[in-house]
Every structure is written in structure tokens, then in C-alpha cells.
């Protein structure tokens, strides 16, 4: 009898696993470059809890907006601003009522070398460097924030000739990391770990120096009928997701 019961229990457990995997799905996600590493961590927890897998494409917010307008099959969009998702909603490319702010980004002036950037960004005024990396302000919200910061400081025209412009914040970070720029304006999330800048030196730009980098997510039309896509957006509001977002250097 015990053997029979054991076999029945094993069969029942196997059926549960099969049912879970049968309902597991994939979600096509467009993610702003600054949030790509964070969404990967969230995606791992999301998959463990639901079985759903994220297929992540990373890039600039501006390019994703254009691609979505031209019919790209993304189902969820994690933007680096709140403007692109709002436009997509207004233009009928996204599902009304699903847009929300999932994180507020922070900008940092960063060098991979210690003692180059102090905690007030004094090096910008001194100008004793050759190249300054920023993301393209026309495509990337973090690039716009960098531009606004330099204008607030009255240094934009003085520094413009030193710019090395990346297509997105990921490329701006790469330019600094590979030595193609001496320092650069990057997302705090790219250099932040365990409550501090993990390498080199940096100045976390005060939020009053630029417009808030409110990062919105929205359900796109191709994901309208997909339960996994809606489940992802709901999971982003959970304590588990918020903990990962805060640990990455964002605010909520």
C-alpha cells in the first residue's frame, strides 16, 4: 500500500510540474540600457516564481520608441523616461492604464580610476581631462540629464568639444570603461553595488541639477492578451522586485 501511495504521490507531483511548464511562457521585453542588468536579476526571480522567461533586448529609449512605432513585436517596454511610454499610449501602440513608474534613475559622473572624480564633481570646472563620455541626448534620457547638468553648472559650452557620445547609456559606460574617455556621465546603477560605487571614483549628481529621470514601463499591444506579460508588470510592483531595484541604486 505504501508503495502504491508513493507512486501516486510521485505521479501527482510530476503532473503539477508538467502543468506549470505547460503554462510557462516567454515575454519579449525592450529594456533601456541602464536597466538591463537589473531586469536580468528580476527576470531570474520572476522565472523561479512563475516559470515565465524574459527575452531581453537592450538599447536606447529613443530607438526602441521608433522600432515599436514601426511594428517591432515587443510586448513590454521598460523605458528610461516617462515620455516615450506616454506617447506610445497616446498613439495607440500601448495598452491604456498599464503605464507606471518602476524606478527613478540617478546620474553619476564616473571614472574607473580612484581619486579622479571628487564628491562635488570639481574636475568638470578644472577641465583637466581629454574626453568626456555622455549618452546621446536626442535618444537617451540619461544623456539629456547629463546635458541639463552641465548647463545648470554653466559648463556645457566649455566642455562640448570634449564629448564622446554613445548611442545609449550602455555605450557611454563602455567608452569610459575601455579608456576611450577619461570619465563620463553614466547611470548610477551601472557602477553601484552594496550601497556604494564599486570601483573608481564618482560624483552622484544632485537631483536638482536635472529633471527627474522617471522610468516608466508599459504593456505594448503585442502583449495585450498575454498573461505572462501582465504578470511581469504586476511582479515589478512586488517587494521582491523593489528590493532588487533599490539595491541597484535607483529610488522608487
Poorly predicted segments: 1-22
What overall geometry do the principal axes of the alpha carbons give?
globular
Q: What is the strand content?
A: 15-25%
- State the share of residues found in helices, binned by percent: 40-55%
Helix and strand content put the structural class at alpha/beta
Largest beta sheet: strand ordering: 2-1-3-12-4
Mean pLDDT: 91
Radius of gyration: 21 Å
Largest sheet: 5 strands, mixed
Distance between the termini: 56 Å
From N to C, what is the helix and strand string?
A: HEHEHEHEEHEHHEHEHEEEEHH
Number of H- or I-type helical stretches:
11
* Overall strand count: 12
Description:
- The chain is of the alpha/beta class and 252 residues long.
- Helices cover 42% and strands 22% of the residues.
- The strands form three sheets. The protein has a five-stranded mixed beta sheet with strand order 2-1-3-12-4, with helices on both faces.
- A hairpin with a 2-residue loop joins strand 9 and strand 10.
- Helix 2 runs antiparallel to helix 11.
- It is globular, with a radius of gyration of 21 Å.
- The termini are far apart.
- 43% of the residues are buried.
- The N terminus is likely disordered.
Provide a compact summary of the structure.
The chain is built from 11 helices and 12 strands. The chain has about 250 residues and is α/β, with parallel strands linked by helices.
Amino acid at each position: 500500500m505504501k508503495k502504491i501511495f508513493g507512486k501516486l504521490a510521485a505521479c501527482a507531483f510530476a503532473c503539477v510540474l508538467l502543468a506549470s511548464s505547460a503554462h510557462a511562457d516567454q515575454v519579449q521585453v525592450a529594456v533601456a540600457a541602464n536597466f538591463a542588468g537589473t531586469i536580468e536579476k528580476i527576470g531570474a526571480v520572476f522565472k523561479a516564481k512563475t516559470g515565465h522567461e524574459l527575452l531581453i533586448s537592450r538599447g536606447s529609449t529613443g530607438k526602441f520608441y521608433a522600432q515599436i512605432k514601426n511594428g517591432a513585436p515587443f510586448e513590454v517596454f521598460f523605458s528610461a523616461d516617462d515620455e516615450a511610454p506616454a506617447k506610445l499610449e497616446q498613439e495607440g501602440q500601448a495598452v491604456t492604464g498599464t503605464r507606471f513608474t518602476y524606478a527613478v534613475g540617478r546620474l553619476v559622473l564616473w571614472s574607473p580610476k580612484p581619486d579622479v572624480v571628487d564628491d562635488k564633481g570639481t574636475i568638470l570646472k578644472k577641465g583637466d581631462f581629454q574626453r568626456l563620455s555622455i549618452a546621446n541626448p536626442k535618444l537617451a534620457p540619461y544623456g539629456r540629464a547629463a546635458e541639463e547638468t552641465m548647463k545648470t553648472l554653466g559648463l556645457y559650452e566649455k566642455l562640448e568639444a570634449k564629448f564622446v557620445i554613445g548611442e545609449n547609456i550602455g555605450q557611454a559606460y563602455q567608452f569610459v570603461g575601455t579608456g576611450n574617455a577619461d570619465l563620463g556621465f553614466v547611470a548610477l546603477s551601472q557602477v553601484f553595488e552594496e550601497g556604494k560605487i564599486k570601483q573608481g571614483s564618482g560624483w552622484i549628481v544632485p537631483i536638482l541639477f536635472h529633471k527627474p529621470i522617471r522610468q516608466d514601463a508599459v504593456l505594448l499591444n503585442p502583449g495585450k492578451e498575454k498573461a505572462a506579460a501582465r504578470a511581469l508588470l504586476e511582479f515589478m510592483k512586488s517587494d521582491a522586485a523593489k528590493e532588487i531595484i533599490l539595491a541597484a541604486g535607483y529610488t522608487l
